[in-house]
Amino acid sequence: MTTSVALNTIWVVLTAALVLFMEGGFSLLEAGLVRTKNAVNVTMKIFADLTFGALAFYLVGVHLLFGHDALHILGFGRVIGPSNLSLAAFTLFQIGFAIAATSIISGAVAERMKFSAYIVIVILTCSFIYPISSHWIWGSGGWLGRLGMEDFAGSTAIHTLGGFMALALAFVIGPRKNRFNADGSVNVFAPSNIPLASAGAFILWFGWFGFNAGSTLDAHSAVLGTIALNTFLAAAAGGASAIVVSVMKFRTADPSMTINGSLAGLVAITAGCAYVASWSAILIGLTAGALVIWATGWVDKLRVDDPVGAVAVHGVNGVFGTLAVGLFDEKQGLLTTGHVHLLLVQLLGTFIVALWGFVSAIGIGTLLKRTIGIRVSEDSEDEGMDIIAHGIPAYNELERFSEGSQIGFGYLDNMFMERQKDVQNSLDG
Amino acid sequence: MTTSVALNTIWVVLTAALVLFMEGGFSLLEAGLVRTKNAVNVTMKIFADLTFGALAFYLVGVHLLFGHDALHILGFGRVIGPSNLSLAAFTLFQIGFAIAATSIISGAVAERMKFSAYIVIVILTCSFIYPISSHWIWGSGGWLGRLGMEDFAGSTAIHTLGGFMALALAFVIGPRKNRFNADGSVNVFAPSNIPLASAGAFILWFGWFGFNAGSTLDAHSAVLGTIALNTFLAAAAGGASAIVVSVMKFRTADPSMTINGSLAGLVAITAGCAYVASWSAILIGLTAGALVIWATGWVDKLRVDDPVGAVAVHGVNGVFGTLAVGLFDEKQGLLTTGHVHLLLVQLLGTFIVALWGFVSAIGIGTLLKRTIGIRVSEDSEDEGMDIIAHGIPAYNELERFSEGSQIGFGYLDNMFMERQKDVQNSLDG
Amino acid sequence: MTTSVALNTIWVVLTAALVLFMEGGFSLLEAGLVRTKNAVNVTMKIFADLTFGALAFYLVGVHLLFGHDALHILGFGRVIGPSNLSLAAFTLFQIGFAIAATSIISGAVAERMKFSAYIVIVILTCSFIYPISSHWIWGSGGWLGRLGMEDFAGSTAIHTLGGFMALALAFVIGPRKNRFNADGSVNVFAPSNIPLASAGAFILWFGWFGFNAGSTLDAHSAVLGTIALNTFLAAAAGGASAIVVSVMKFRTADPSMTINGSLAGLVAITAGCAYVASWSAILIGLTAGALVIWATGWVDKLRVDDPVGAVAVHGVNGVFGTLAVGLFDEKQGLLTTGHVHLLLVQLLGTFIVALWGFVSAIGIGTLLKRTIGIRVSEDSEDEGMDIIAHGIPAYNELERFSEGSQIGFGYLDNMFMERQKDVQNSLDG
Amino acid sequence: MKRIDAIIRPEKLQAVIKELRQINVSGFTVIPAQGRGQQKDLHGVYRGHTYDINLHSKIKLEIVVSNDFLQPTIQAIIGAAQTGRMGDGKIFVYDVEEAYNIRTGLVDETIDELNR
Amino acid sequence: MKRIDAIIRPEKLQAVIKELRQINVSGFTVIPAQGRGQQKDLHGVYRGHTYDINLHSKIKLEIVVSNDFLQPTIQAIIGAAQTGRMGDGKIFVYDVEEAYNIRTGLVDETIDELNR
Amino acid sequence: MKRIDAIIRPEKLQAVIKELRQINVSGFTVIPAQGRGQQKDLHGVYRGHTYDINLHSKIKLEIVVSNDFLQPTIQAIIGAAQTGRMGDGKIFVYDVEEAYNIRTGLVDETIDELNR
Ligand SMILES: Nc1ncnc2c1ncn2[C@@H]1O[C@H](COP(=O)(O)OP(=O)(O)O)[C@@H](O)[C@H]1O
Ligand SMILES: Nc1ncnc2c1ncn2[C@@H]1O[C@H](COP(=O)(O)OP(=O)(O)O)[C@@H](O)[C@H]1O
Ligand SMILES: Nc1ncnc2c1ncn2[C@@H]1O[C@H](COP(=O)(O)OP(=O)(O)O)[C@@H](O)[C@H]1O
After folding, report:
1. What is the pLDDT of residue D108?
2. Is the pLDDT of residue A389 over 80?
3. How far apart are CA F90 and CA E51, in angstroms?
4. Where does the record locate the signal sequence feature (chains D, E, F) (predicted)?
5. C-alpha to C-alpha distance for A348 and C21, rounded to whole angstroms
6. Rounded to 5 degrees, what angle do the CA atoms B303, B167, E12 make?
7. Cβ–Cβ of A419/B251 closer than 8 Å?
């Protein structure tokens, strides 16, 4: 094996590990921001991404994305990866990307979506929705890529898509019980565990170095260092402006806005990290950090209930980040060079992908609603999904359990049938 | 320094860091799964691994493992590492492996083992037990290696060994108070903090990339990318099948089983990650995820109390993973090529190591019981080990402490003697 | 791009990511060790480091540190980095170092410093104080470096500096309410969350591989593997001796002392990791682990209130680690070679930097006291900074919030003025 | 002077507080509790074992009112906390002999804001 | 109608509940508490300072029963919660004036399942 | 025999306990609570929405004493817990009918350490 391939391979394996570790970040962030009674459920949704989602993408999606191009719209067949890189490493890295897209959705529909419905959504997203639109941008011969769209590590391919799917599904499923009052005012649901949420944010920030710099898929890339620096600076600037704006608007340095400001900076720089100068990265971050605060307000005004702010962070800043390349690209940006072409292409690309995500998610959501159901019963929502869907609350201080009975191994015994009836009863009345 | 050595060295240093970070994963996983009153204690046991265990292996164990071979049974003298790799980096990586083996034990004996007894176990395991059996497999000239046993990153050397030592010690020490009723039924002890446990699982999963891919000890390995991909796929498949089986058997997507299913997939692919195809990795993971659920039941039936499921995850799946190489190895597997020889060698190897671990752990446990004692008093167990052995509970919400008195620095003053008496009294009556 | 530059660049990018991830470690460690009502605030201070601190260093500090030398005291102008490394990667790595220094301060002043005052301190530290003294050691032409001072990864430049700034500011701001009794005895304030604190410690330990080994800034360094091994051994030895000493002195294996013992070992090996033998690393770690326990007592005796032990860990062991190079350096150490020159230079260097940090922090602290104020009101301290400065408590189990009112977006409305008055009133009476 | 202990569903707490304020009962103490009555057990599953969750999360409100306010307060609580399903909770009434205000050190004058 | 406050060891909770069910007392409320009585202080150590843990974890059970059930209930609790060591806890009895069932809005009929 | 319920500020707990010990009241139970009285609401902000924190953290002390100890105990609590600002808390007194010691199974003899 040549040194060059070896170098690229370890680079991509290590960055893929970082990207996959981000799932832990999503999990902690969400578990910290939802109410205690649903902290296990959001964690289990991330496990659904890492298991069903990853297998779906590996078995189906990766071929649609990186297979041989058909009509500039879809890939099929054998995966084509970079020549001087282990194909397995490439595939692993791409799995991390696919499940990042679907993890975005999990936060927005938290505390009320059926676990089974979520698994269906994950499988469809990783098998079809994400691979198809990403083929347009990243697949060999994809039509958006051919138009010249620049989306280095996926502000559009991942974040706009995930964010608008999240918006659609949060809309279809409806807000959490009591979230909005009749007059449109909002009831505050306290986040259960801020230190846990911030731990998630730190992991996401850490993993994002892999996300963006790893997207070179080439350790020899001359801009690799710049990408990493830009990524960091945008995150720092996003967090800084979120603190400043939140102090100015709310008279409080709001921790969840600070977290989301940093993440917004990361989302926004993802498209352009390889194409813009460091001062542009700072400007992009500063804007993203403020934008996410306004966008959170817009989502509330739409009466869409997004418990973790996924739409504001990923959807809105995915779009902004994509457009920002059109503004700040060193070679073809409007502000840097006066050319408008790239900006228009970016606008088209991100709009199309947002639409694709929104419409297909509305479709899936409606379908689920009519079939297996998308939302838990009102009683289950009151009780919390942890105990209903996963059998155990997140935190157990008191030794309150009574004697258990071991479930017969090897068959589904009567007790279980009864148990189900009981749960049903206890839920019904 | 040649590029090749430099590349190998940074690869091994980075993956060693990942492997050592897994200790944090073990710690959080265990702290989340035990009861609140013992969360500090399990954390401190991981610190014992990282401190006493690491030093013991560095000073003694590594020589027995990688020293000059004697009679195919034991090494001694200067450590022999790969030629194109910094010996220090090699040693660091091997420390991570040794303490992983001993960390497996910590979970199974949680909530009742004396801290001092645990330290003795750690030191003996890292100095002698683990290095000796691993020399058989990995040492230059080890007899199992010479027979052709394939255990790439240690399904047997680490997980079977650790799992069967855990079984033996959990057996010797006996179950937690009230865990089993007279009729053999099991009382459920609620896990204190599921989000913490899942954070631990994500860290373990992350670190496992270092564990398996780092075991190449060579960045130029042609299968390095495949190893990483196989590792991930087995974990994903393990988690997926654990969710499916737990829903089918328990009508619940059990979070602790999902976590253990993923970990079981990781344990099972550890031996074969470099030797099997990706579809085999998925099959191995799927099997492991189901196996771990059954195995958890078997352990309960034996009335062995394993609070975190270490025996089911590491012991049973270590054995299974080792055998799976015999079935799926691309060159000599029974199912892939029809050859049975490798499978028999694997069977012999994993059986011998399981026996070695089990018997020596029974020996150590019995010895401890007769000398310094292995189990805390019943009152200490009621009170929780955090306050008894470490002076402080894990979570302190209420400002409930009264005035403190600084302990005289420089000598052991009377107050302490009294304090000990008091503790004694408060425990006795 | 040559393979050599590529290799160095990915090495530095990955280790920079590790160093920056340490901020998450600081955050969790502190959030676990302070009282519940201030857990959000310490987290937000780390965000201040990552945002305002990082930008300040990037825009100002890095030039003073690595710019063209002036009078051996200060740099200015374009940053000069290693020739065979991406300048962006170098800059990113240095950002991580700068904010590590300032993060040390955050713990010592926890639970009582105004958030605005902390932001000012961070900006000044990252813009001026840290870059100037570090230029003396690491800048091209810095006067301490020219004297031959050896501070490989910053025991002095970062830890002595941060530790003595922490001491000065903890002194200026005064102890937490009720911390010391009139007779000098200490009231114990229970740490809120030990598992969280230990998670932080594991992340710090993990990141430290990047901190020390990454400081080679060169993947081809012949001592890179040794550095990583020494770093680990010192941490292991520090934790081990802290456990032993705490059992001997306190009859308890104190978890916070164990954590701080490991960290003390890491701090102490930071200067010498590239220069000392592995057995010296172990000795340094053993000493550091004991030293940190005594030093914690000294700080208490000074009636300085340092909630997380930052002065004992970073200040005292930064000094010790720097001196230890003078003792154990393989080529010029007093104990290894009999030469005394290096030891004297080390003593001078670490003393000067401690003084610089202490005096400038006293200056800043006094200035802040006279202007915007450095300490929150007594009522805010009682109530906890989480709700006062950040609007939300760290943990919210009970669904206790009443209806909220969305804050008008786009302007500062009356309600806010009222809100501020209310807060004022509720604080005043 | 009477003391009312009301055990209610946690999700009804804010509604009850709102109702209490409406009838000018402004002092009360809230304690998280777990309870057991006619509401059925929930069943959980952990590691292959079912267990009964034989305690449900409840909130206990303790309210001291003057005799005149007793019935209005009880009605307000019932009005706000009732869902008609098992587990709505109970109200118990006790006699209070004395009440002091710690702030003033005197007999409490704030019950139902008598001083209004 | 009486109210029983029983302060017990946390680890005895399930045993007490079992016993209560056996004698058909099915309604009660459980509150985590910390208490202090004759049980000795524990001592902790944190960062080189000892401190007294002058409060021990306890569980408080609140049970309202009809007068007939008072003695059996007390005996059941004592039977299940006694270990004979310091810290076993106390039982206090109070008079209850009225009881309402929030679900029905009427005077409670479920105390000791009077309707059975 | 009387039962005293004292609702105090959390930060005053240790001072009150100290004072109680001084007057030889050594048995009591402590329960974390949240309360509402004349103390003003705090306001929080989360994600661009203000919310009232209409409950403040309090500690509830439950102390059973003999009649003779009633007034001294009340005075001790007021002495230790008073700050003079809104939110200092209340003390309520109830009658206790019986008291048992679970350890002995007999009528409690430890109230105010009568056996001393
Ligand atoms: N006899 C009792 N003594 C004390 N608390 C009781 C009693 N009966 C019920 N409770 C409390 O009231 C709560 C609701 O009781 P439950 O019987 O479920 O309500 P409902 O009668 O509306 O079905 C219980 O969870 C428990 O906390
Ligand atoms: N006078 C009292 N008033 C209120 N609660 C009390 C009183 N005495 C004891 N308790 C409660 O009972 C618990 C057990 O009391 P303790 O004296 O330790 O039991 P024992 O008498 O069995 O030794 C205490 O922790 C406290 O919660
Ligand atoms: N009528 C009441 N019934 C029950 N608890 C009360 C009552 N009034 C006040 N409290 C409790 O006392 C606490 C302090 O009351 P508050 O009115 O703020 O004190 P102050 O009168 O000193 O200003 C409250 O938070 C609440 O827990």
Report:
1. 83
2. yes
3. 29
4. none
5. 36
6. 45
7. yes
Give distance in angstroms: CA of A194 to centre of ligand 2.
36
Question: The domain that contains E8 carries what CATH number?
Answer: 3.30.70.120
Give the CATH number of domain B3-370. 1.10.3430.10
Q: Return the pLDDT at C399.
A: 55
The answer to whether B257 and B238 have CB atoms below 8 angstroms apart is: no
- How far apart CA A324 and CA A340 sit, in angstroms, is 12
| Interval A238-259: pLDDT, tens | 999 999 999 999 999 999 999 9
Residue F113 has pLDDT above 90, yes or no: no
* C189-223 b/e (C-beta count within 10 Å ≥ 16 → b): bbbbbbbbbbbbbbbbbbbbbbbbbbbbbbbbbeb
Low-confidence ranges of chain B (pLDDT < 50): 400-404, 406, 408-429
Residue F42 sits at the chain A interface (C-beta within 8 Å): no
Contact indicator for F53, C401 with CB cutoff of 8 Å: yes
- In the chain, the amino acid numbered B144 is L
Question: Rounded CA gap, B293 and D86, in Å?
Answer: 36
**Closest in D11, D39, D50 to A407, CB measured:** D50
Q: Which atom of ligand 3 lies closest to the CA of F90?
A: 12
pTM over 0.90: yes
Size of interface C-F (CB pairs under 8 A): 55
Share of chain B residues as helix, strand and coil, in percent rounded to the nearest 5? 70, 5, 25
Residues of D in contact with C398 (CB under 8 A): 10, 13, 32, 59
- Domain limits of chain A? 3-370
CB C392, CB F44: distance < 8 Å = yes
Instruction: Kindly report, residue by residue over A255-287, the tens digit of the pLDDT.
Output: 999 999 999 999 999 999 999 999 999 999 999
Overall size of chain C counted in residues: 429
Report how many domains make up chain F.
1
Least confident residue range of B277-281, C371-375, D50-54:
D50-54
Three-state SS at D6: strand
Contact predicate D108/F90, CB 8 Å: yes
DSSP state of C178: T
Q: With contact defined as beta carbons under 8 Å apart, do D9 and D87 qualify?
A: yes
SS3 letters across chain F:
CEEEEEEECHHHHHHHHHHHHHCCCCCEEEEEEEEECCCCCEEEEECCEEEEECCEEEEEEEEEECHHHHHHHHHHHHHHHCCCCCCCCEEEEEECCEEEECCCCEECCCHHHCCC
Q: Is D55 in the pocket of ligand 1 (CB under 6 A)?
A: no
Per-residue pLDDT band for D18 (boundaries 50, 70, 90) equals: confident
Long-range contacts of C340-349 (CB under 8 A, 24+ apart): C341/C148, C342/C148, C342/C150, C345/C144, C345/C147, C345/C148, C345/C149, C346/C149, C346/C150, C346/C271, C346/C322, C347/C322, C347/C323, C348/C144, C348/C147, C348/C149, C349/C136, C349/C137, C349/C144, C349/C147, C349/C149, C349/C151, C349/C156, C349/C322
∠ Cα C172 C177 C180 (to 5°): 85
> For chain B, how many residues are written?
429
Name the DSSP letter for residue B398.
S
Q: How far is CA A219 from CA B359, C11, C81, in A?
A: 49, 10, 20
A287-336 pLDDT, tens digit each: 999 999 999 999 999 999 999 999 999 999 999 999 999 999 999 999 99
What is the C-alpha separation between D43 and A405, in angstroms, rounded? 11
Chain C interface disruption, residue of A188, A203, A259, A296, most C CBs within 10 A: A188
Count E/F contacts: CB-CB distance under 8 Å. Answer: 84
- Count of Cβ atoms closer than 10 Å to residue F84 Cβ: 10
Which range of residues forms the domain containing residue D24? 2-114
Q: What percent of chain D has pLDDT over 70?
A: 94
